[in-house]
Amino acid sequence: MFSRGQPSKSKTLQYNAKAGFSGGRRLRDDIFRHDGLNKVWVPDAFGFAAELAPPIYRCSMFKMFLDVTDDATKRQSVVPSSESVRRPIWETLDKTVDDVIRDFLQLLYHHMKLTFMDEGLRSEDMEYNVLFTVPAQFEILEVEKFRSLVKATGFGAHTISVSLREPEAAILYTLNHGVKSLMPVGQCIVLCDAGGGTVDLASYKVTAHNPTTKVEQINIVTGRPCGSMNIDLAFKRFLFEECLDQKWRCYFQSSDGMMHLQRMCKAFSDRKEAFDNGPSTPNITIQVSPPSLSGANISAGYLRISRLQMCSLFKESISGTMECLKEHVDKCLRDGLSIKSIFLVGGLGSSKYLHQRVKQYCLSLPGETEVIKPKDAEFAVIRGAIESHQKRLFGADDPISLRICPMSYGIRVSEPWDPIKHDPAIDDRFWNPRTKMTMAKNQVKWLIKKGDKIQGKRVAEIRELFQRNFDKSPEIWQDNIVMCSLDIPPTRISRHVKPACLLTSNMKGIPIDMFEKYKMEEKTGFWGRRRVFYSCNFDIVMKIGLTDIEFQLYFKQKLRSELLKTSWGELVL
């Protein structure tokens, strides 16, 4: 949101990590030109300006970090079986996924600055506050990587915030603009944020309307990669496998052919949004490109798709969305709560066909459940993020009074060996000379578990005491923070336990007299003296938010941020 104001006033804008712009358009393409002097490929244009560029220079991805792992499968699914799978374009340009994201963000930043300069909103005269949202499926490491990529671009010179996940931003918009009669106290509302890449579901119980609306989260936010992009891929498969003559299948693998394919996909996307499975429209037609295209269902320059075939193209996205929706509805019903409204937001959320299917499903539910598409539903995430940020600036109460932790977080530890709990076949043992105890390695102490309730605040705060012993001088100690998405996390390190970050506590600069001094019970040496050792006790406070984890170290009851370093990245347990 931008308006003219006095110099040095803070202005807020918002983008999201699925490459959506605050104007609501999809910006997902980069094109590159070759810098002959430095012998590298440099970004040249993005978004719609890049859509019709030659494919050999254009990189496309929808949900970075979520989209890339399945790239080979997706590319294989839209080419003839006789064709080899093409390498991603960014690899042929000698770039990584991170490089492409960074280049895209930098082009987006330049576009933003030029747009604001045209409006007289120069960064020299005011502070930019840029908000980013991330998909529900992003784990902490992916959020941190995205945040680091943002900071490495021109955005890093301004105040940036990556503090909301898309479903929560959407529900905040819905609470601000929804009709109160559709959100009665004591009943549930379910929000379905169906976009291009993922479909995210969130469910809440309404607890109050006066003086302000308050809700409590009922179920963990869930998401699946079943957005409308799958409909587009299904269309390409249909085109290749059932419509095109053999000569055209090969042609569409060429640079010119891929440009024509892009035009047809754009035409299909426009018709897809209007499809409602109405019996009055037994077929939809799409102008083909090039006009001479031939094959089954193609006549006089138009491709005809039957109503039944359109339903099959929607099948994967619709079925995935309905399965996610059913999970949340079932949880509400198990808790004895009735569901008053289901809100559909996002690009796919505005689909008439999806709306029809959800309404049909609601007929089987007890009571009367309304299916609502809020006004400007496709902008719900963007506007919800901005409005939420504005309210926080003015000190308004958080409308979500109870949240549910989406994942378990803990620390890798060694603990005293327990023959009942530990198994010699899978647990490593070692002898601790100070404690005179056998210890089990690679165990996990869970600090907060998936499903735990976070009451009355945006973050969960956990304080944990750390005790480290040393002989002569304090050391540098490292601890692994781990995470797990299972409903019941394991007690030891396993394939289900992932590294989150590495905490490095550096106590080397602290005088020795600041630590507790002890003597070992057993006497050692010729003179039978008891060996001296020191104990270092400190607290680490872990603050778990919607999109990040923050750590603070307290020594002698004082905050000592300079003693703690947090390292994110691909760690090995």
From TrEMBL:
Gene3D superfamilies xrefs: 3.30.420.40, Actin, Chain A, domain 4
SUPFAM superfamilies the UniProt entry points to: Actin-like ATPase domain
CDD domains assigned to the protein according to its UniProt record, in alphabetical order: ASKHA_NBD_HSP70
Family annotation (InterPro entries): ATPase_NBD (IPR043129)
PANTHER family noted in UniProt: ALPHA KINASE/ELONGATION FACTOR 2 KINASE, HEAT SHOCK 70 KDA PROTEIN 12A
Protein name as annotated: Actin-like ATPase domain-containing protein
Organism from which the protein derives: Orbilia oligospora
